[in-house]
Specification:
single chain, alpha+beta, GroEL, 541 residues, 3-stranded antiparallel beta sheet, 3 domains, GROEL, domain 1, 7-stranded mixed beta sheet
Length: 541
């Protein structure tokens, strides 16, 4: 490249670094594969857990892929893209996060071998996209329909999502809780909003003490100890306004010249608050949930009126209370009518491990419910909550889509076999990419076998043999160490877990594949790029 007056022209800030070509690709591939390797050992019923310690010393013990990747302090940009794969999978389906990341890592490993054979990354990415589209088509063809009313099938799906996690100790209890809770909040058709299932953790007691409440549980207490602890046949008022003396919106100064005037001022303040409480009482409400504050005078009058009151309730809890009890959330006390009130069989403050919790239960047709999780230690309860989240999400997905596939690596082996047949019909260099995609699919059964201490080659041979005979649902039973029909075994996953994992992992792998130049700007004082050069000249471009 030409130079002006013999001097290089600097176009990047001093301290910036640049990596190009095979070096850039190699760096990105290594980072992405390292992320996949970090979570690979957690896959399956026999997967191991990870202990993560943050900068504050807080410990998280889990084998949930997305939790591990979120807690890891990852710097490399390509590695961050792999974390995004797990987050997308978690947001869309709730389960299969480890599967998605492991497949993405294996796709890049296969692509590395093809690049060594001088196949252009764009050709590989195009072949991967073709294979992904064909894989989605194959998965839809082998999927099995399931009805919303099939509770036994939903229990099996929840059990599969919990397998390998701490919640497996009480899997039967938890699967019943999950299916019962999701069935309550689901309409007869349409999407299932799992945000209406509230999970409340409480350390103490046994795992088996966990329960579903047909209503809402809140980690709150009554505003005054003299209020009734328990209200039956509750008429519930939800108020998004403060029961406090209204202050002026502008700065005002009030001058009082005698004690009588001061007393009159205080009496008027008391009268205003009493009138607000009277309006609550006249509406017929005997329970008040207030999103804002309730001052001391209002607490006194509410207590005298025998009204059970809770303040500073979160917006999300107010919305769930409205769905569970049928109440309307009011922004002013002036317009309250009996029609705005909700109802519940019992509203009660109970002591759970020396702390008060509000139970709103026995609602007639609750469209929002709560699951109270109990466990011996904080780490156990946290991991159970993560398992519960996965199970609730997959049950909701199956109720929405009505489609399932067998688990235990069965779909991946079927995909590998069918995609190799498809590759032969494509021809050209894209054929090699599709075959590489097919080989990458086998990483799931291979990993399941390795994590269970089985011989992965023997297991894969047995699986391929069964699928070549047309047994589409044969997968790997890692407990018994042999291949079996996973549908009969009750190991079932939603179709969307597989389609989303393949879709997001293919997109991430294709994006990383197409990067051949990494330009990183300096974060701190200029240090210069590797090699001791002070900057980047025009000839470097």
């Amino acid at each position: 490249m030409s130079q002006l007056t013999g001097q290089p022209i600097f176009i990047l800030k001093e301290g910036s670094s640049r990596t190009r070509g095979r070096d850039a690709q190699g760096s990105n591939f290594a980072a992405a594969k390292a992320v996949a390797g970090a979570v690979r050992t957690t896959l399956g019923p026999r997967g191991m857990d990870k202990m993560l310690v943050d900068s504050m010393g807080d410990v998280t013990i889990t084998n949930d892929g997305v939790t591990i990747l979120k807690e890891m302090d990852i710097e490399h940009p390509a590695a961050k893209m792999m974390v995004e794969v797990a987050k997308t999978q978690d947001d869309e389906v709730g389960d299969g996060t480890t599967t998605a990341v492991v497949i993405a890592g294996e796709l890049l490993k296969e692509a590395e071998d093809l690049i060594e054979q001088d196949i252009h990354p764009t050709v590989i990415a195009q072949g991967y996209r073709q294979a992904s589209e064909k894989a989605q088509e194959i998965l839809r063809s082998i999927a099995i329909d399931v009805k919303r009313s099939d509770k036994e099938m939903l229990r099996r799906i929840a059990a599969t999502a919990m397998t390998g996690k701490s919640a497996e100790m009480a899997r039967d209890v938890f699967t019943d809780l999950v299916v019962k809770a999701v069935s309550m909040v689901a309409d007869k058709e349409g999407p299932v909003d799992i945000n209406n299932v509230k999970v409340e953790k409480k350390v103490g007691g046994a795992i088996e003490d966990s329960e579903v409440i047909e209503g809402i549980v809140m980690d709150k207490e009554r505003v005054h100890p003299q209020m009734p602890r328990k209200v039956e046949n509750a008429k519930i008022l939800l108020l998004n306004a403060a029961l406090e003396f209204k202050k002026t919106e502008v700065n005002a100064e009030i001058k009082l010249t005698s004690p009588n005037q001061l007393q009159g001022y205080l009496d008027e303040e008391e009268r205003m608050i009493r009138s607000l409480v009277d309006k609550v009482a006249k509406s017929g409400a005997n329970v008040l949930f207030c999103q804002k504050g309730i001052d001391d005078i209002a607490q006194h009058f509410l207590t005298k009126a025998g009204i059970f009151a809770v303040r500073r309730v979160t917006k999300s809890d107010m919305e769930k209370l409205a769905r569970a009890t049928g109440a309307n959330i009011l922004n002013t006390i002036e317009a309250v009518t009996k029609a705005d009130l909700g109802s519940a069989g019992i509203v009660e403050e109970r002591r759970v491990k020396e702390e008060g919790m509000i139970y709103v239960e026995k609602c007639k047709n609750p469209k929002a419910v709560s699951i109270v999780l109990r466990g011996g230690t904080e780490h156990v309860v946290d991991e159970m909550e993560r398992a519960m989240h996965d199970a609730i999400r997959v049950v909701g997905v199956v109720m929405e889509d009505g489609k399932i596939v067998a688990g235990g690596g069965a779909p991946e082996v079927e995909l590998a076999m069918r995609l190799k047949e498809f590759a032969a019909t494509v021809g050209g260099r894209a054929q090699l990419a599709i075959e590489a995609f097919a080989n990458a699919m086998e990483i799931i059964p291979r990993t399941l076998a390795e994590n269970a201490g089985l011989d992965s080659i023997d297991m894969l041979v047995d699986l391929r043999s069964a699928h070549e005979k047309g047994k589409k649902n044969v997968g790997l039973d890692v407990i018994e160490g042999k291949t079996v029909d996973m549908l009969r075994k009750g190991v079932i996953e939603p179709l969307r877990v597989k389609t989303q994992a393949i879709s997001s992992s293919t997109e991430a792998a294709s994006m990383i594949l197409r990067i051949d130049d990494v330009i990183a700007s300096s974060k701190s004082a200029p240090m210069g790029p590797p090699g001791g050069q002070p900057g980047m000249g025009m000839e470097d471009m």
